[in-house]
Structures are given as C-alpha cells and as structure tokens.
Amino acid sequence: MTDCDVAVIGAGAAGLSVAAISAGLGLKVALFERAAMGGDCLNHGCVPSKALLAAAHAAHAARRAGRFGVVLPPPAIDWAGVRAHVAGAIAAIAPNDSEERFTAMGVTVVRAAARFVAPEAIEAAGRRFRFRRAVVAAGSAAIVPPIPGLAEVPFLTNETLFALDAPPGHLVVVGGGPIGLEMAQAHARLGCRVSLIESARIAGREDPECIAPLRAALLEDGVALHEGAEVAAVSRDGPGIAVVLGDGTRIHGTHLLLAVGRAPRLAGLGLDAGGIAHSPRGIATTRALRSTTNRRVWAAGDIADPEGLGPRAFTHVCSQHAGIIARAMLFRLPARLSYDALPRVTYTDPGIAQIGPTEAELRAAGREDLVITRWPLAENDRLVAEGRAEGLVKLVADRKGRLLGASVVGPGAGEMAGMFALAIGRRLSALAGAVLPYPTAQEAAKRAAGEFYAPKLLSPAVKRILGLLKRLP
Predict the structure, then answer these.
(1) pTM summary value
(2) Residues forming a β-bridge with 196
(3) In the chain, how many H helices and how many E strands?
(4) Which residues are annotated binding-site positions for NAD(+)?
(5) Could you confirm whether domain 150-261 is CATH 3.30.1490.190?
(6) Residues 6+ apart with CB under 8 A from 443
(7) Which residues define the annotated binding site for FAD?
(8) Which residues in the chain are classed under CATH 3.50.50.60?
(9) pLDDT tens, 186-224?
C-alpha cells in the first residue's frame, strides 16, 4: 500500500493547482488523471474556444475594414489553417500542465481512473493508495439532454467540436449560454451557416440590459436565433440532421452542437465507499471546501457544491478553490469561500461581463437599498474612434456608495472585469477618482462610478454653497 500526504483526483485547472502548491510545500502528492493532462480548459474548453474566436474575430475585422478606408477582399477561410492555430495554442500551453513538469516537482502522476475504496484509500491502475488528505477535482462534462431521437443522431459537444476536419455547412446549436453563444458567433464569422436554439432567452443569466447589443451582433453575423423555442425531437436527415421545434418548425443542418450546460463528473469515483456526501449538483462541502461527511476529503472546481451554492464552472474559480484549500487543508487556517466578487465573461463580440450579483439577483435576495448608475459606451472616446461604441456599463451600489455588482456589455468587457472585481464591496469614490489613461475603454467604468455622485454635486444645496464661496476673495 502506497502512502501519500495528498491525493488529487483530476489533472484539470483545480487539481493541478492543488498538486503544485502541495508539492511545493514538500508534501508527498499523488495525482490521478484518466484522460489528458490539463483537463477540459486546456483541451476542450477555454484555450481552443478562445483560439477559434481569435480566428473568427480576424475574419470579421477583415470584412469590416472598409469602414476605415482600408479596402480588403473578402477573407478566404482556410479551415486547416484555423485548426492548426487552435492546435498550436493548446501545444504552446500544454507544457505547463504536463506530466513531465509535475513529475519534476516530485508529484507521482498516475495516468488512470481513480476511485475511493475506503474513507482513507483510493485505488487506481491496480494499486491502492492510502492518503492523509484527498482532493476531488474531477471536473464536469457537457449535459446530454433527453431529446427524443437524440440516441440515433450524431451530435457534438465541446469535447468533440474542435476535432472537426472540415467546417460545418450548417451548425445547429442547442443552448444560448456562454459556450453556445461563443461557438455560434465563431463559426458564423468563419463562414458557416449557424442556427441557435434557446428555450428562454440568450445569455439568460445575464442582466437583461446587456442582451440587446449582443443579439444585434449575432443577427448581423448571420446567426439565426430561435429564442423561447423548445426542441421537440431530432432525427437524421440524409447525411445531416433535422431539429423539430415545439411549434413544428424544422431546422435542417449538417452538425448538431449541444451546449445546454454542464454536470459534475461523479460516476466511477466510488464516493459512497469513501463516505463522501454528494448530489447531482456535486460533492457537498463546507465554505472551506471540505466534505461534509469525510473530513479527510476536499473538493475543488466544477465538482464542488459548497453549502448549496452549486458549482461554478470557471477556470478562475478553480484557482480560487485551490487557494482556499491550501489555507484550510494545508495550513489549518480559517478559510471561507465567497462568490460576492466573482467575475464571469462571455467572450463574444460584444462581450458580456458580470462581476458579483446582477440587479435582479440582489433584489431577489431582498436588497432594497440599491442605487443604479449607467454609462453608455457610445460616450467613450476610444470606442467611438475605433467604431465599436456599442454597449453599456451598469453598476449596482448601496446607498452609501459601496459597489455590489457590475454588468458590462461591449468590446473588451472581460478586460474591464478585473477592475470591478477589485472594487466590489468598496466605495465608488475610489473608482470615480481614479486617474486612468486617455483614451481607453476603461474610462467608462470611471464615468459610471462618477454618476453615483453627480446628483449630489449638482444638488441645490451644493449650488448655494458655491454661490457663497464665489463671493470670497
């Protein structure tokens, strides 16, 4: 029986971070991964999707260059070249997540599926590993919904989409969340016909005020949007597929992409044998990410369900979880997870960023002391100069001026998110008084913060005081 101080199941963003921290502190670490090192983010998620989006944005920029007096021929899409770019991005980052790098750190890397066989033991590759502490970071997988006919139809998820050796003739996307929206726009800008089906409205989690600019951009890109539409059935249609909507509308496509959400990978982990409480939402943990039923075990990343908050399928949350676990598990210090300032971004063009809760979420939680300020990007000089001034910055603060949440839609929304993540819980005066370089898109954040104080500065009382002051010598 092999002993280890820390056993980590899953070599994705969360597991790799925990393993690196633990090994760096001199602990004996065993890392188990049944598939590719780097997990979903590197191989099927963040990296390939953003690489594909970069190619799509380049094609879109070429088509719009005439607005600036630069006349270019219509771009020719070399799909093999696009795929090479995506593969190159993965290959460039892969060494950071590689087995060789972690072995050099002193980590025992076991390339096999792992499962709990006791509250203090894991079995993998025919060996049993006894651990002092274990971290489950097995991630999540795309949900395959129970659509009639789906079992007889070939379909794609994010795990298979990037392996296509030819561009889809007509990509039908089911799901209007971040993955569905990003991939719909990317393929449309790369010359594919695209239809997107969403049972509610696109970007359903985001502030409703942020949706209109994105919807307009998708329609301009040629994406056929079907919002408020249920998929009733799918079937083969010659070499392609047919999707039947609830109202009888038939959409004929060549490829079907499912992007309706993600579910934690719980199967095969032997959680019951490990005495680890779990539900379809993930492994039940405290706010310190410790299992509620097995004190030897922690959970991190997409598989963790801390005090019913539910999973957050973001790579930056994996890093946040690793920090919480390092503090609580390794140093035995108090730690408590909070998503109050959590940013999330949909990397479309325009992008949507949400930092902290939306206005609707705050009101649903019973907050009534809200002050809303807005600044349109049409008033931002940099974006006007670049011909991209569509969008909005919206801030939600309490009556004392403390920032509670921020919503952004526009070019570079994700780059603005970091500023707001630092500002959550702080007074808007710091942001309103910041000296930012001109001209930048981030000035919109400063102007939105300044709007909180504008009514006070322009009040009759202030004007009376200024009237008295101007009489002084």
Answers:
(1) 0.94
(2) 173, 225
(3) 15, 24
(4) 175-182, 198, 261
(5) no
(6) 380, 381, 382, 436
(7) 50, 302
(8) 2-37+98-142+263-330, 150-261
(9) 999 999 999 999 999 999 999 999 999 999 999 999 999
pLDDT in tens, 306-325: 998 888 889 999 999 999 99
Question: In one letter, which amino acid is 301?
Answer: G
pLDDT digits (tens, 9 = 90+) for 262-284: 999 999 999 999 999 999 999 99
SS3 content of the chain, % helix, strand, coil (to 5): 35, 25, 40
Q: Which residues are annotated as a binding site?
A: 50, 175-182, 198, 261, 302
SS3 of 160, please? helix
Q: What angle do CA 190, 39, 79 make, to 5 degrees?
A: 20
Quick one: CATH architecture of 343-457? 2-Layer Sandwich (3.30)
Mean pLDDT of 7-12: 98
CATH number of 2-37+98-142+263-330: 3.50.50.60
pLDDT at 51: 98
Q: Express each pLDDT in 73-113 by its tens digit.
A: 999 999 999 999 999 999 999 999 999 999 999 999 999 99
| Residue carrying the six token digits 């408590």 | 336
Residue extent(s) of CATH 3.30.390.30 domains in the chain: 343-457
